[in-house]
């Protein structure tokens, strides 16, 4: 059986569960909404798998569907009774989502969250005022709020009640730890697509992987990890503050890339000069060959002398 190619497939966590759907406002540069599923005390982000990889180095080699330019993908389902193929499906995947990323994006820089300790109910009320009419504020279970707030807030206990105050230091430590985890993973997995993109930026025809300085590779990998972590959920200004606060430096990477650019420019200039010399030499040879061709001899013009007017005519004249 061939299912219609507009059919959607959603990969959910194993087991039979019921889920509620919420849409979180995405404050990153991507905009739009973050679509999530909530099941008890867990939250999952829904992402579409479209077969396109932004980190592919040779994108021209990726198989594509004719006319639509879409990715080539099919799913084969097997069962004891009937199997079927889903051609070019719209595939959605539910991944575990850390709500702390989202709370950083909506709480950072807001005085009502960072100036004093407030209860969870006060936090939810403040979010409700900021995002008036959006159902997600009250749809997220308290347990998910509490778990995320513990990662990015200072908290105190008084009279069996917990109070929270947003902490930039804790939030940045949370993001830095995630960045370090991704960096460590990438450095240990050279075959990952993002790693191949990193290497393509650092390699040239005269430099192989063994000649890349370790500090340059470390800085480049860290920089891409920051883009990966912060680019999806965190506003640009928070990313900039994080880099300044944690004193991330790209001095070795910037110098290395500048040297590569200068080397590339030098090679291009040398190649252009060589091509110019080759073209000029070929043109000169063509001109020389054309000039050396034998020219036709010019016919000498002889002026005819009228009969009786020549120099010897008087000698032969009768007396």
TrEMBL record:
Start and end residues of each Rnh202 triple barrel domain: 11-98
Domain Ribonuclease H2 subunit B wHTH intervals: 101-242
UniProt keyword terms in alphabetical order: Coiled coil, Nucleus
Coiled-coil blocks: 253-280
GO CC list: nucleoplasm; ribonuclease H2 complex
Keyword Lyase: no
Keyword Nucleus belongs to the record: yes
InterPro entries in the record: RNase_H2_suB, RNase_H2_suB_wHTH, Rnh202_N
Cellular compartments annotated: Nucleus
GO biological process, one term: RNA catabolic process
Task performed by this protein: Non catalytic subunit of RNase H2, an endonuclease that specifically degrades the RNA of RNA:DNA hybrids. Participates in DNA replication, possibly by mediating the removal of lagging-strand Okazaki fragment RNA primers during DNA replication. Mediates the excision of single ribonucleotides from DNA:RNA duplexes.
Name this protein carries in UniProt: Ribonuclease H2 subunit B
Organism phylogeny: Eukaryota, Fungi, Dikarya, Ascomycota, Saccharomycotina
Gene symbol of the encoding locus: Piso0_005374
């Amino acid at each position: 059986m061939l299912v219609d190619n507009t059919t959607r497939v959603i990969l959910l966590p194993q087991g039979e569960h019921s889920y509620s759907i919420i849409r979180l406002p995405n404050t990153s540069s991507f905009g739009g909404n973050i679509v999530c599923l909530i099941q008890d005390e867990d939250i999952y982000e829904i992402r579409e798998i479209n077969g396109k990889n932004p980190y592919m180095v040779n994108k021209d080699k990726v198989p594509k569907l004719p006319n639509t330019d879409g990715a080539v993908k099919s799913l084969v389902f097997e069962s004891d009774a009937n199997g079927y193929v889903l051609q070019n499906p719209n595939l959605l995947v539910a991944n575990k989502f850390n709500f702390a990323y989202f709370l950083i994006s909506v709480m950072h820089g807001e005085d009502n969250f960072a100036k004093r300790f407030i209860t969870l109910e006060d936090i939810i009320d403040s979010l409700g005022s900021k995002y008036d009419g959006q159902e997600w504020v009250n749809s997220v279970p308290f347990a998910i709020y509490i778990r995320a707030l513990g990662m990015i807030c200072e908290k105190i206990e008084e009279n069996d009640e917990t109070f929270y105050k947003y902490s930039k230091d804790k939030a940045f430590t949370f993001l830095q730890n995630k960045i370090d985890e991704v960096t460590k993973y990438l450095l240990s997995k050279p075959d990952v697509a993002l790693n191949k993109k990193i290497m393509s930026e650092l390699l040239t025809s005269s430099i192989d992987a063994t000649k890349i300085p370790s500090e340059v590779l470390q800085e480049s990998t860290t920089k891409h990890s920051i883009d990966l972590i912060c680019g999806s959920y965190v506003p640009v200004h928070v990313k900039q503050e994080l880099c300044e606060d944690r004193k991330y430096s790209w001095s070795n990477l910037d110098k290395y890339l500048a040297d590569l650019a200068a080397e590339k420019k030098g090679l291009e200039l040398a190649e252009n000069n060589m091509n110019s010399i080759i073209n000029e030499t070929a043109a000169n040879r063509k001109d020389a060959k054309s000039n050396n061709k034998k020219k036709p001899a010019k016919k000498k013009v002889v002026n005819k002398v009228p009969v009786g007017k020549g120099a010897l005519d008087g000698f032969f004249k009768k007396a």
